[in-house]
C-alpha cells in the first residue's frame, strides 16, 4: 500500500494511506458480490435510500477539513474554493435527492390509446444494477461523490474509480465511503489506467464517465462490447459571445471569475471569448481590474496568492504553457499575465488577444487559466466560428437584448447555455447537465441524475376483454374493416 501526503498551512505533513491498487481477483470477487446485492437493492424503499443519502451527507461534514487538506495537497486548492466548488454542490445534490427521491421512485401513469381501450399504462423506474463511475481529477471530490448520490437514490451498487492524479482526495473518499458502506454496495478501486482498463472489461449495467473526449471514446468503445449503457460527461471548447450591446464590465467580471476558478481546470469554463473588434481594449481593461480584485494581487504576484490553485501536474503544465508560446509565434499578444513557474506547476491568469483561429489554443480544450480573445465584425461571423467546431458543452452569451440572445441560441447548439453569466447552470438541479455529441452523451443532476442511473421500464396491463382480439387471425373481411377503420380514425 502506497502513501499520499497532506500538506498543512503550518508546513507539517500528514501521511495518509492511499487506496491500494485492486487486483483482478479483487475485481472478480467484488463485482459478483455487487451483482447479488443489486438484486436486493431493487426492492429498497425510498426511506432506506434516504437513510443512506443522509449518512453520505453526514460523513462529508465529518471529513470536511480532511477533504480541504487533501485537495490542497493534490493541487494547492484553497479551503474556501473547496467548499464552494466541491462540497457545496455535492451537498446540494444530496439534499435534492433526499427531498425528492420518494416522488422520483413512484410509477408514472401515462395515457393509453383508444386502440388499447381498457388497458392501463405506466412507467416504472428500476435500478440499472452494478454501475461503474469513473471520476476525473479536476473536481475530484464533487465529480465522484455527486454521481454516487444519484446512483444511490436510484438503488444501484457502485464501483468508483477515482483519478490517480489526486491520490489524497481519493484516499479521503475511500475512507469516508468505507465508513458507511460495505464493498458489496460501494467499492473504490484506485490505481492507474491499467485499473480502469481492467474494470472496463467487465459487463457493468451502466458506466458513468467524466473526463476528456478522447478517453470518452475509449469508454464508449469498451461499453459497446457488452452493450452497456453509458453517460459521458465530456468537455470541449465552450465559447463566450460578448455581443455589441453587452455590459462590458459585467461581462468581464463574470467571465474572469468562471475562467480562473480552479485555475481554468473546469469542463464548462469559458474557453475563448468572441467580441467585436472595437470592444477588445475596454474589455481587457475591465478583465484585468476584475482579476486583480478577485485575487488581491497585481499580475506579477499571483503565485503568492493562496486562493489560486496550480495545474494538476507537470505534464498538463507543459501542455497548457505551450499554447502561449505557439499562439504568440502566430501573432497573438499577451495582454495580461503570462507568468510561469514550472517547479510549482503555476500558470498565472493570462489573457491573449489577436489570437488566430488556426492556433492550437483554438483547437484543443485549454483546461488552464488562459483566455484567448477572438474578434468579429458581425454577429453571424462569431456564430460561424462556433458552428465550425464540434458542439460544445456550454455556450455563454452576454447581451442586454433578449432578441440578440435568442438569435444566438437559435443558430447554435450546445449542452447548456447561460445568458449574462457563466457556469451557473450547474447550480440548478432542475436543469439537466450534459453535453451533445462531441461534448457528451446523457445528462444528470437532480431528477436527471436519478434517471441516468435508472431504467425506465414500460408496463402495460390489459383487461381480459381486449379489443385487440378483434384483429387476431384468420384475417377475414371483418378484420380488414376493423383495421381500416382503426387506421383511418384512431391511429
UniProtKB/TrEMBL annotation:
Q: Does the keyword Flavoprotein apply?
A: no
- Indicate the residues that form the catalytic site: 233
Q: Which CDD domains match?
A: ALDH_AlkH-like (cd07134)
Q: Which UniProt keywords apply?
A: NAD, Oxidoreductase
Aldehyde dehydrogenase domain ranges (all copies): 14-458
Q: Which Gene3D superfamilies match?
A: Aldehyde Dehydrogenase, Chain A, domain 1 (3.40.605.10), Aldehyde Dehydrogenase, Chain A, domain 2 (3.40.309.10)
Q: Which Pfam families match?
A: Aldedh
Keyword Oxidoreductase among record annotations: yes
Q: Superkingdom of the source?
A: Bacteria
Indicate the family of this protein.
Answer: Belongs to the aldehyde dehydrogenase family.
**Protein's UniProt name:** Aldehyde dehydrogenase
Q: Which organism is it from?
A: Leptospira kobayashii
Gene that specifies this protein: putA
